[in-house]
Amino acid sequence: MSKSYGNVLDPNDLSELLTTEGLRYFLLRQGTPQDDSNITIPKAIDLINSELVNALGNLLSRCTVDKLNPNQVYPTFYDEVLKSTLKENGQQLVDGLNSLAENVTNCYDNLYFYRGLEPIFEQIRSTNALLEIHRPWNMKEGSELSTILFISYETIRIANILLQPIVPEYANKSLSRLGIGDKERSLETAIFGGLQLDGRKLGKNCGNVMARIVQIKETTPLKKKKKSSKAA
């Protein structure tokens, strides 16, 4: 970008279109310390919708609905269900959550934010896949449903603790929905079962954490071109 070429981005316009949190996320998710990023509106919208709105936002929404959690409390984990029913898929998720904070913070500390965000969303995608395999919405209340929900809630909780430096408002809304207090959001708690939450009341449902950003029709780069002052 250069003023002489007239393609300087206006952050105010960008944040209005993508939301402040969305713009912040996109820049840190795509930007690398050594390379310039090629920013286009469709690319930004697709990434924000795909990861923040769909993958993580929808995971929170569908796991906390009354149909799956009529009492609106943090579910209970049953180790025997993990071993007998969920087996390798479930254990891999738990192991991944236990190592996630260290992996992510190492990347953050070296300013490789995009590298830190990738394993977070790998865990989220794996959790969504677990739900598709076991389809908890077809289950009756019991230990299997409770364990699947617990793993899902822990994925959401740990992911949002690690997202606090990136999208603080988004993370705050998500953690508040799970009933996680302000003093319970430290890195030390970002492990599977890191807090005693079984049976705790969930927070108020305030709707979607982030609204879907509407895709524009044009595929022009995310920039404003100045009109040439030279005569045609």
Automatic annotation (TrEMBL):
Which controlled-vocabulary keywords does the entry list?
Aminoacyl-tRNA synthetase, ATP-binding, Ligase, Nucleotide-binding, Protein biosynthesis
- Every Methionyl/Leucyl tRNA synthetase domain range: 1-63
GO process terms (BP): methionyl-tRNA aminoacylation
One GO MF term on file is: ATP binding
Q: Name one Pfam family in it.
A: tRNA-synt_1g
* Stretches of the chain forming a coiled coil according to its record: none
- Spell out the SUPFAM superfamilies in the cross-references: Anticodon-binding domain of a subclass of class I aminoacyl-tRNA synthetases, Nucleotidylyl transferase
Task: Give the record's family classification.
Answer: Belongs to the class-I aminoacyl-tRNA synthetase family.
Q: Please name the PANTHER family in this protein's record.
A: METHIONINE--TRNA LIGASE, MITOCHONDRIAL (PTHR43326:SF1), METHIONYL-TRNA SYNTHETASE (PTHR43326)
Full protein name: Methionine--tRNA ligase, mitochondrial
Q: Which organism encodes this protein?
A: Panagrolaimus davidi
**Biological classification of the source:** Eukaryota, Metazoa, Ecdysozoa, Nematoda, Chromadorea
